[in-house]
Amino acid sequence: MSPTVADEPCHRPFLIGVAGGTCSGKTTISERLAELAGDENVSLIKLDSYYVARAHLPLEERAEANYDHPDAFDWPLLNDHLAALVAGATVPVPVYDYVAHTRSAQVRMVAPSRIVVVEGILVLYEPLLRDRFDLRVFVDTDADVRLIRRLERDVAERGRTPDSIVAQYLATVRPSHEQFIEPSKRHADVILPHGGMNAPALDVLLARVRELVSVG
């Protein structure tokens, strides 16, 4: 499905990239931004939606893939969608099935808004994507906290076992974090220690959003 141009294109969106390690608090911060600005002013896009399609592979092989490596993502599609949003088009964002480890047949239509927030572990890694952002944020949370959160989330929401989560963390999640995600922090304009629990740092970020909404 191709992007469609809105009837009344809005002003160029302000693009915010929110990066950080797995379960660092990226979603919490992105949702707080949307809550403050209002759904009509913020479009949220998750990098996880752009995992490459793997339906042609056996389930066992899909489950063993490294989902924290840059090669796991469809960067051209995400960049095309952001370019379309900036141009005033509505885009069909893929919906990923975490149980089947591939894209579902559904899409989520995302319309351009005053602010577009893209959140995900590697949104500050890929150069073309990184250069699109007007504000680059890195959510910095201790590794033990992130691991505990990932255990709780994947057991409750994704039907995983604790043993499989720990094995994946040691085999791919932690090495990819150290090799790709943590180094991308140097590209951030704002670093938020302790993730969504850092109220003073979050207030600074929210103040910028208030300013954008008030003048939009």
Helix and strand string, N-terminal first?
EEHEHHEEEHEHHEH
What is the makeup of the main sheet? 5 strands, parallel
The CATH top-level class label: Alpha Beta
Write down the overall mean pLDDT: 87
User: How many domains is the backbone divided into?
Assistant: 1
CATH architecture: 3-Layer(aba) Sandwich
Shape: globular
- What gap, in angstroms, lies between the N and C termini? 30 Å
Task: For this entry, give a set of tags.
Rossmann fold, 41% helix, alpha/beta, 7 helices
Protein model, in words:
The protein has 216 residues and is of the alpha/beta class. The protein has a single domain, classed as P-loop containing nucleotide triphosphate hydrolases (Rossmann fold, 3-Layer(aba) Sandwich). It contains seven helices and eight strands. The strands form two sheets. Strands 3-6-2-7-8 form a five-stranded parallel beta sheet, covered by helices on one side. A three-stranded antiparallel beta sheet has the order 1-4-5, covered by helices on one side. Helix 1 runs parallel beside helix 7. About 3% of the residues have low confidence.
